Amino acid sequence: MKNKLQVSLLFLIALVLLGFQLSGTSRQVAPEEQRAQRAREISTDLLSRYDSPSDSLKRKAAEYLLAGLPAQWHYDTQILEAMDIKQMVMDVDVIDADYLAENIEYAFRAWELPWAQDVSFEDFCRYLLPYKMGNEAPEHWRAVVWDEYSAIREAAIAEPGIRPSEVCRRVDAVVNTWYTVHYNDNYPADAGYLKAKEIRGGTCKEASLMILYPLRALGVCANFECVPHWGNRRRSHAWNALYENGQLIQFNGPELDPGTTKEEFIGVGRMMRKRPKVQRKDYLSAGKIDVTAEYLPTVDLDVLGRGAHSGIPQLMVFDNEKWCSVADGTWRGHWATFPDVARDIAFLPVVDDNDFTRSLSCPFVVERSGRLKLFRPHLWRQTVRLTAKYPEDEINAVFPGESYELLYWRNGWVSLGVQKATDSVLVYRRVPKGALLWLHKDDGKKRERIFTYENGKQIWY
Amino acid sequence: MVLKNFINCLGLVVLMTACCPVRVHLAPESPQPASDPACLTELLASGNYQNLVHSFKLSEETAVRIVGQAEGASYSQIPGLVEAYLNDCIEYFIDLGTVCRQYRFVWNSRRVTGNNADTTGVRFAQGDPSETSYVFEVAFPWSTLGFDGIPTEKDVLRMDVSVLDNDEGSRDSQIAWSGVNPKLYQEWSQFGDFPLAGYRIAVAPVIDGKVDAVWEKQERIPVSHVIMGSVEDEADLTAWYRLLWDMEYIYIFVEVEDNLKRQAAFMFDNGRLEDVNGNVLWLMEFNRSTHAGGALKNRRQEDTLRLAAGRYTLYVETDECHAPGHWDDLPPTEPYSGIKIYALDR
Question: Are residues B325 and B288 both part of a single domain?
Fold first, then answer.
């Protein structure tokens, strides 16, 4: 009797657990269906507000927002701030047709401002219409920002012929009174305008995102631009740009106004920062578009697959210690193609196939003139005399008593041996001519750059 | 036989493709701007990122007017284009627990920069006691620095004082009181402890950039760690600081010995004229240029030269922005970047 009871109890527990599991499974599936259903409801509700022929443009704008809506996401800010956990939430779960309709109304008000009169509908949709700038949590920011910057707006309306860049300068001046651009204290996710008002500071990336809110609310077609990785040093960078008379003008909102900023210049005597790729945040297009050709002289590259024609072809740049991807290519037959690639930067093309990365060719650079230069180690050898592991300062010169390792690239870094320097010059013999070199010092500091050795000099990349 | 030929051909194809695994497709270049018929010769940029070279020959000695236009800036004119830390300047860092603030005061500038540099209520004055020295006297409100409470003699500040030196157009060296490497601005752990005991004053100093009686009594603390570049000797760069406080402010007085007091200034686009032996006969330099109209960064340099008969080469280089077709601010009155040479004798 007791055994029977135990078996029944176990059976009951199993049923309950199975029930939980089934309900759990149904919960996993249901949100997708619910989300699709919710998106349809938002779409129907929103579009029904623009049935009138006089609202045809607003209807098109609504369709634009709806087209990008399924891909929009953010991190739950409450969970993020309370527990430092990044939990992804789809925007469609938290916004409704009222939210989008309010956004459309204010965007159209911005488009009607005098300095935005030349903005095409396509540019309006891309730059003035989106309700968010990155992956920040949707906020009811439109009315707040519209009111907050009313003094600038009204004053600018009273000045016929005022340029968008001038409006931008005035917005920068106001934002500069409460926002500080710095290198630390990052908010761990993209912040909307209202959140930025709480944080009152951020990095170049956070500042460049934040400044778009007041600018776009005031009809300025401003963008968030970034390099995913510098082409000749560590780290990434973000800045802004706006269009004026069809010309792209860089700025670093709110710190540096249009026409007063350089993104690549970092002082005389130091290596310019180079941009291998420039990306622009975009509401559609999976969140970003490649705008490198708007900034730099570029080339289109085809790289032979060497047997590979699947997997993701990628272009890598050197990060002072490893290669990092900056662009994905596509396959055209046996060739991997990479459009709009910057010149004068050392690239390594690779293919990433089933978590296995292999190089498609030796590293190369397309010089400013357009000439291709492959860093292919020759059979011929040379003696090299090296004075530095990094070009910018004396700290990274060769110091007597310190140990260094010279490496060259042949389908991977190949050591040419470790030497203890006895002088401020390191001499290595039988180094393959034409090879890409890297002088490494095992001291944990990563100020090291790749170079070639030509005509008795280190040429840095 | 056929198979052998096929294998040979295949090998040849494989060899050729292996030799040239990368194909490059160039986009069309921007067209050159129309030439000026009044010029003897010229070299003008048509866009950003250009490296242009043009050779010409003079059959007889010729007096010429050479006119260059390019983009350039100094810190005092366009601070954004020339980073503050590239100038002669002092820095004060303080970490009061809630936030770390960095303040940078550039010689001969009223602009204050730095990470988290809240300037609410901050008062400062610069003095130049001699041709080879300068001082900054600053009063920071405790509240602005983020001090939460009432300062007492028992408190210890986490802080640093740093001085940057520019002798040849850019940053050459940096010294600090406590810091040990140039990452001081990021690594707050490099800051030193400054116990407030004994530094409280009843009468505040006048913020005028002068050593008044209240400062005279205080010891000078050397700022002596070289954290970037090299310092040649004491005349090149030496610095001390003094600190005082009352219930409202921290007062800092920094004295700097610097035999070359400079603000940074750069040409972003470059132009030069060379003779056949590569000697530079003429060069665009910010300090020899004037405003070319339009945006302040439009620079124009005019000189008269007498050139002997022979071959010469012009070089023009443009950077990432503000060249014809890509003006990012008002263009110069004569909207070109480059060099024009006019013959004076003809």
Answer: yes
